[in-house]
Amino acid sequence: LVKGLSQFNNLKAGKVVHAHLLVIDNPYRDRVIERNSLINLYVKCGDIRSARLVFDQMPKKNIVSWGIIMAGYLRYGFPLEVIEKFRDMIRLVKLRPNKYILATLLSSCSNMGLLEQGMQCHGYALKSGLIFHLYVKNALVHMYSSCSLVKLAVQVLNSTPRSDICTFNSLLNGLLDQGEFTEALFILKRIAAECKYENWDGITCVNVLGVCGLLEDVILGKQVHCRILKSGKRSDIFVGSAAVDMYGKCGEISSARKIFDELDGKTEVTWTAFLNALFHNDCPEEALQSFLEMKELEHVSPNEYTIAVMLNSCAAIPANGYGCSLHALAVKMGMQGHTIVCNALIYMDSRCGLIEDAIGVFNSMLQRDVISWNLVISGYAFHGLGKEALHVFRQMLAENVRPNYVTLLAVLSSCSVLGLVDDGFDYLNSMRENFGIEPGLEHYTCIVGLLCRAGRLVEAEVFMKSSPVKWDVVSWRTLLSACHVHRNYALGEKVADIVMQMNPDDAGTWILISNMHAKAKRWDKVVAVRSLMRGRRRKKEPGISWIEIGNDTHVFVSDDDKHIDSVQIREKIKSLIAEIKPLGYNPDCSCELHDVEEEQKEDQLNYHSEKLAIAFALMKTPPGAPIRVMKNLRMCDDCHSAAKFISSFTKRRIIVRDVNRFHSFSNGCCSCADYW
């Protein structure tokens, strides 16, 4: 009767039966079976206190009694009580654990991160032979996976012949968390071979789709998705969300949208997956629009992951005003303490030119992870503040936070900003020994950039040719760009040939080569490059600058006359040029890469998109307010020079984010030290 009541969680009737047992209790009978059933009833009904009272009052307990009370404590989040009860069982009644108790104990060690005690249990499982029971094996795999020891989890998987879908679920989840994508793919193949598709549960489907997404293997993803649909899990909202996420990561945004639209009962998890898919497929504006639809039309409240995705979308545009609104929403919803939200705020602020605000968020964080430190270090480097970046890195080491691959990339970028060639090589050469990190292509590319910034172009070329690295087009373009900046035409021609062989379809590379020829006044080469571009149907991306004033975004192109205030803007530019020329500004006509008269070049220079945006901001913002301009291409030398003089003349701080970095102009100086 008690077992039947426990199945229906009927606590009230269970207490009636318990009272009846107390009334008719015979002191000469132990009633172990009945009392075990009562403990089980109270556990399943959530009354762990009553379960413990029944347990403590039992004159005689068997192994089942101990197992039920331990399982109850584990179920309701008291793993320390499980370990304490286990010690009592061993010390007081000398009982040996069975497979159920050992599995419960291993789960408690997993929840508490007690790896040493868990490994002791593993040793007992091997000695006693309990390792051959699936309960124990699954608990061991889950423990090692949760403790980030996926190699030991794989060893447990292979140590005994039998495995089920729960075994693979735990291992696959651990491999995904650790980024072991190759091993995860191998386990996926084993799941397909050893487990029938109809035995896959929702967790399996979510994990398997996660593997396909992280591998960006859309063909495999479609095969897996097809099998899932055939198995009848179309309506599972978590599986649907995982499918949306998978297609988004594989670049199939139309498929992600189709699945999203077909899902019923969308939750914040589903919306977050879809918004993240839009963000990863370069649709941040649409992500922001969909977020409004989620809140206003669907009445779905965002969680901390949704807010983080939206802040990242603001950083991509960048949309500082929208980001501030999201920050206020996060505070209103009590999410300002979540690490993932704080990290997204740091990223958004640093990408919008608000590095001081980013540092303020970082300093206010109660819990920081390695991503928090990486964002601050890279944010400082991106703003040209190399000394501050290296100071934060030293602070990170002092707080015993272990750096990762990305950390050292940000550190090398900081060395590049400061021109610290020797320090950069020291960090590169000590990565394996000091931090256990194998240098990758990105780290070596940073060294190339470091040598280039220091003007040591020949050394950079020798380094690239002598290093056992398979260089990509980005590395060679770094050297090509340096040849353009330092006007090393001879080396630039050699590097240009290499770059064009590697990626002949990149319009940006063609433009860089054309500009290099133009600076050397090799107009015949300029004509040849432009002719090749036309033949390949490659067009130069137009230079665009934009600025936020209030709730409006104003966009400018070079020589723009479409803006409603274009007449006043041009007058303002003429006035500014007249004011800064006596201060030392001299138009750099080499930046106007057309074979025309010098006077015409100077006139064209005056109306570059960033100058138009700066002039408009000076007209529309109060005196002393900082100016923030975004540009889609590299800022030209003349606009860079003009911005320095304008900042000095107007006593304004002017922040320009171009495709390479932030330029913070103040009192006639730029944070990039005139190298970008």
UniProtKB/TrEMBL annotation:
Gene3D superfamilies: Tetratricopeptide repeat domain. Residues 584-676 form the DYW domain. PPR repeats lie at residues 31-65, 369-403. Keywords: Repeat. InterPro entries: DYW_dom, E_motif, PPR_At4g14850-like_plant, PPR_rpt, TPR-like_helical_dom_sf. GO terms for molecular function: RNA binding; zinc ion binding. Belongs to the PPR family. PCMP-H subfamily. NCBIfam families: PPR. This is DYW domain-containing protein. The lineage of its organism: Eukaryota, Viridiplantae, Streptophyta, Embryophyta, Tracheophyta.
